[in-house]
Each structure stands twice: as structure tokens, then as C-alpha cells.
């Protein structure tokens, strides 16, 4: 039996991703209207967390239970992916207990191995390599606010990390003007950048100049400078990223009304000022809410539960 997983955005066609966005819109409306949508009645979701996250846990757990199912949280002390037990063993056992598995891990190869041995859908809740649920949420939020995402200029300011990698995967399906503005030495994966450029769908720019990067930006997006597992590099990163803060001056250089996004948690007055976070152009909390709706749509799509 063929099992569908959600591991990388580019595993899906442009048409399939548009169907996911349309489904997310419907699911969000049902949630806001407090309609019953118990498509996962008597079903269970196993949530495996090697990397803790309040938003990921609350959004998946709340969403799955709204859809009639039961979500189980398994933290680092409950399960040692690749340490206490072989990943393929965990995958086979959990597949027999649960109907969907979401995993938020460090090592990307671990999510790949989970999927290889699972007989139920695996959802990538984040790895050090990518964050597909977040970026599908992000483009959904941009679509809500701009109405049209074709050739939207998205400027990511900061580390060329897993967020950037998923934007690059998206750029292979949707036509974007995507800019990653980062200090030298913090660029995204070079092979992935080249692959995205070779697709010829989007314009991809990697630059070290924030002033030039943000010109005509529809969206400026940032993330923390030191993610989980990088805190020992915090002082070094602070020095490297000092000129890449998203502040009122930078937002004023775009030449248009530009939206601000952040995947949270934010370290206010570090990578972004408190003023930008609280500005009328900030859509950070729409973005945060939409994580749940898009993730719900992903689980529905993978499980063929739409009706």
C-alpha cells in the first residue's frame, strides 16, 4: 500500500500544493465557524519531539482533537530517536498504534528513515534541514494578505537555515522573487540553491546587503539568530548578524507597504525590534494561527479524509 508523507514541499506538484492551500482555507473557515469536522474520530496522532516547541505541540494537538482525534505527546525523555531504540523499530511499532505520526527532530535523515518504515503518514514538524509545515503556512498567510502570490518578493533576513531551505523548495513550485540576505558564512545549502535556480520557476538571490535586498519587498521575514542547538554560538552570531536586524529604518527602505513575518519565538530587539513586531504591517500572529489550519489540512490530505 502506498503511504503519503509530508517531508519536503517539493515532493508535491504545484497543483497539489494549491489544493492544499484551498483546503487550508476551507478548514480555517470551519474552525472559525465552530463547525463539527470530526474526520479523525477514533484516530490517534503520535507527536514525537526531539526538539521541544510550544507552538508545534499546541497547534497539532489542538487541531487534531478539534478534528475528533486524540493526540499523544512524546518528548525527548519519552523516546530517544536513534539513541535508545532503532528508528525503523519505532516507526513500525508506532504505525501499528497510530493513524498519523508527526515528528520534530534534529537530524533530517531520521525523518526520512521514519517514513521509509512507516505504514501511516509521517508529517515533518521540523528538522535541522527544513520546516515544510511552516513555509506552507507562510505562503498561505501571504496569499490571504496579498491575494496573489505570483512573483511576490519575499526577503528573508538572517541565517540561511531550515526556514530558507523550505522557501527554496517552495520556489521550485511557485514563481517567487526570493531573496536570502545573510552574513557571509551563513548562506543556505549551496546545492539546494543551485537546484532551485536550475528549476527556472523563481528568481533566487543570495546577498549580504540588507539595504539592496529589501527594495520593493512584499514581505520581510526573519528568525532568531541562534536556533535550538546553536546557543553556544550565540555571541559569535550576535556579532555576525548585528547589521541584519529588521527595524523601522529597514522597513522604511522598501519603497512600499511591506508585510513583516516571523516564525516565532522572537527575541524582540535582537533580530527584530519590538516596534516592527507590533506595527500594523506585522502579520506574525495571523501566521502563527495559520500553522494549525494548514497542518490540519496536511493531515487531512495525507489521510484522504476530505469530504
Automatic annotation (TrEMBL):
Catalytic activity: carbamoyl phosphate + L-ornithine = L-citrulline + phosphate + H(+)
Protein name, as recorded: Ornithine carbamoyltransferase
InterPro entries: Asp/Orn_carbamoyltranf_P-bd, Asp/Orn_carbamoylTrfase, Asp/Orn_carbamoylTrfase_sf, Asp_carbamoyltransf_Asp/Orn-bd, Orn/put_carbamltrans, OTCase_ArgI
Location relative to the cell: Cytoplasm
The protein's enzyme class: transferase
Residues binding carbamoyl phosphate, per UniProt: 104, 131-134, 263-264, 291
Keyword S-adenosyl-L-methionine: no
